[in-house]
Amino acid sequence: MTKDDSTARKARPLTVRWADLADLILIVAREIQFRGYSDERAVQLSQSEGMVMRHLVLHASATPSQIAAATGLQRTNVSPVLRDLETKGLIERHVDPQDRRGVSVHRTRRGAENYALVRKEWGSAVSAAAGGDTAGLDAAVALLKTIEAGLTATRPNVSDKPVRDPVRRHDI
User: Would 96 disulfide with which of 46, 67, 102, 108, CB 3.0-4.6 Å?
Assistant: First the structure.
């Protein structure tokens, strides 16, 4: 890149540059998802399943309502995701012995191992795509953490009402 290219790029409006970054984040996430896994032990997860497993790796136990609030999933969508994860052997549900109506969700050892395995594969894929260049890695991770925290903190309240906008897609 020449100095003129760099100057022209910086002259672009900030709103366009932020939109470019958002678009690239979505593209990179999709490319990672398209790859699948080279390790046959890895269990493929949907985007929603991945969000639930990420939460359960950070929090050893959670109720379905806590999972819905933490992941932004609608409460009605959490049950089928949990059922699928349970079928895959990645989580267990335990009935609250006191209440008998409440359920707590726990990751299994297999669930924790699978998450570690897929993270390793994601990291390898991203590193290879960047040609192993780590020059801006720490700054990129810091910026993405800030963006993630800001988006999570300002997430609209999730309700069990249907989404009004029929064009809105959750798999993008």
Answer: 102
Q: Give 139-144's long-range contacts (Cβ < 8 A, gap of 24+).
A: 144/25
Q: Is the pLDDT of residue 54 over 70?
A: yes
- Spatial CB neighbours of 11, under 8 Å, sequence gap ≥ 6: none
The residue ranges of every structural domain in the chain are: 15-151
Q: How confident is the model at residue 98 (pLDDT cuts 50, 70, 90)?
A: confident
Note the pLDDT of residue 5: 59
pTM of the predicted protein model: 0.77
Class of domain 15-151: mainly alpha
- Dihedral sign of CA atoms 51, 56, 57, 58 in order: positive
Residue with tokens 């006191």: 98
User: What are the phi and psi torsion angles at 48 (to 5°)?
Assistant: -65, -40
Contact 115, 89 (CB under 8 A): no
Q: Which amino acid is at 79?
A: S
